[in-house]
Design brief:
- This protein is of the alpha+beta class.
- Helix content is about 25%, strand content about 30%.
- It contains nine helices and 19 strands.
- The strands form five sheets. Strands 3, 4, 5, 6, 7, 10 and 11 form a seven-stranded antiparallel sheet that branches. Strands 15-12-18-19 form a four-stranded mixed sheet, with no helix packed on it.
- A hairpin with a 2-residue loop joins strand 13 and strand 14.
- The two termini are about 80 Å apart.
């Protein structure tokens, strides 16, 4: 065995070039005694039991959830593996108007209560046939994500799945208005912008044999003989009838849903709360502080945060500055008058400390001037001295300073503002006070 190709017999992997597994001490005497007469396999076994540092581990394959997240990036899933009842529901809703769904990769739920404006029109296309061959679970999640979870067992049993599809046309959406999405659409993520229709057959078994016309003629094993594992899992429609459709509509036996083409809804449409709820953006009182948003004694979130809330509930902002300091609280005004705005922000103009201190100083000195002026006026004028004149000057000046001092203290008090936000989340009111 060469150094550059040392083999980890326990793990079935190669060690890095230049590294040889150390020999166990108990085997060293065997090397001397048996190196000439013993086969290499016996000597190599001494290396197998030696303790070595862990080797680099091969990354695990993605789990089902990871595969579903990958599948969610593909917005044109096949629906041939859907149960017949689900496909019938989709066909019925397509006739009534736009179909809105909640799509997450391996799951697509039709929201039958969400009925925006719009309609589908049939467009006849050249009849075409295609076959999707699935050999392992990665293929299954990539090609048939909506049925992956239910078909995993069948794939494991038969070893292969094949879907033959014949498409005769497409239903395309027109006149769709996303603004019409409201009640019943809370979990909506996509709208079905088009739907291919036709006939299909889902089979399980050995390797699919496709003839020159593209149709599945049977399943054969690796030796070319017919396999007994061939089975039809699902089928709908008749491929022979697909050519009988017209420009107005497909043939009734070639109108089964084959593939949906989804378009993501705008974030302003997807992010909808339940009826009567209000979306509120809570801002911190000061940028360098984290304030808790309380509903009663329960913490809803920590600022800055955004939540759909019931406007009838009372909300409080709380800040805990730490040990030896008192907690600070701000009560949020009643949000019910803003329910029609749908999206608002709550911000606080905190107490202006400098203005408050200035107001206190002005009020204090003005008060002293008033008291002094009053005293000088009373005493000086009664005795006819010059103090009377000083008092008559000081008293008006003190009174003149009291009003702005008191106003400064009142104005420095913080205020909680509830302001409307537009669809883009930008403030829509008058210019904010700096």
């Amino acid at each position: 065995m060469t150094q550059g190709a040392a083999v980890d017999r326990d793990r079935g992997s190669r060690l890095p070039s230049g590294i040889v597994r150390p020999m166990h001490p108990a085997c060293r005497w065997m090397v001397t005694a048996l190196s000439v007469s013993s086969p290499p396999s016996l000597l190599a076994s001494c290396h197998a039991g030696a303790v070595t540092a862990p080797l680099v581990r091969t990354p695990d394959l993605p789990d089902d959830q990871a595969r579903c997240r990958i599948a969610a990036n593909h917005e044109n899933p096949l629906v041939t593996e859907w149960p017949a009842s689900e496909k019938a529901n989709l066909e019925a809703l397509i006739r009534e108007g736009p179909v809105v769904v909640s799509y997450s990769g391996c799951s697509m739920k039709v929201l039958s209560t969400c009925r925006p404006r719009g309609a589908y029109a049939f467009r006849r296309t050249t009849t075409s046939t295609d076959t999707v061959d699935i050999r392992n679970s990665d293929d299954l999640y990539a090609k048939l994500p909506l049925g992956a979870l239910s078909l995993e067992g069948e794939l494991a049993r038969s070893g292969r799945l094949a879907v033959q599809t014949t498409v005769s046309g497409q239903l395309s959406l027109g006149g769709f208005d996303g603004k019409g999405i409201g009640a019943g659409c809370e979990s909506a993520t996509h709208v079905v912008r088009a739907l291919s229709v036709g006939a299909f057959k889902l089979r399980s078994g050995g390797a699919a044999h496709v003839d020159a016309q593209g149709s599945v003629t049977g399943f054969v094993d690796s030796h070319g003989s017919s396999t007994s594992e061939e089975a039809t899992v699902r089928e709908a429609g008749s491929p022979e009838r697909c050519s009988l459709g017209t420009d107005a509509a497909p043939d009734a036996e070639c109108a089964s849903p084959i593939q949906v083409f989804l378009s993501p809804l705008p974030s302003t449409v997807v992010d909808r709360g339940a009826p009567g709820m209000l979306k509120v953006k809570f801002l911190p009182v000061r940028a360098n502080e984290q304030w808790d948003v309380l509903v009663g004694d329960r913490t809803l979130c920590t600022t800055p945060c955004e939540r759909w809330v019931d406007p009838a509930m009372p909300f409080t902002l709380k800040y805990d500055p730490g040990f030896l300091y008192r907690n600070q609280y701000w009560d949020v005004p009643d949000l019910r008058p803003h329910a029609a705005d749908e999206h608002v922000q709550v911000r606080v103009d905190p107490t202006a400390t400098s203005e408050l201190v200035g107001g206190i100083l002005v009020t204090t000195f003005s008060g002293i001037a008033v008291v002094t002026g009053t005293t000088l006026t009373a005493v000086g004028c009664s005795k006819g001295t010059g103090a009377c004149t000083a008092g008559l000057i000081t008293l008006p000046l003190g009174l003149a300073g009291l009003a702005p001092g008191i106003w400064m203290m009142i104005d420095s008090k913080g205020t909680v503002h509830v302001e409307p936000l537009g669809a883009t989340g930008m403030y829509q009111g008058p210019a904010l006070k700096e």
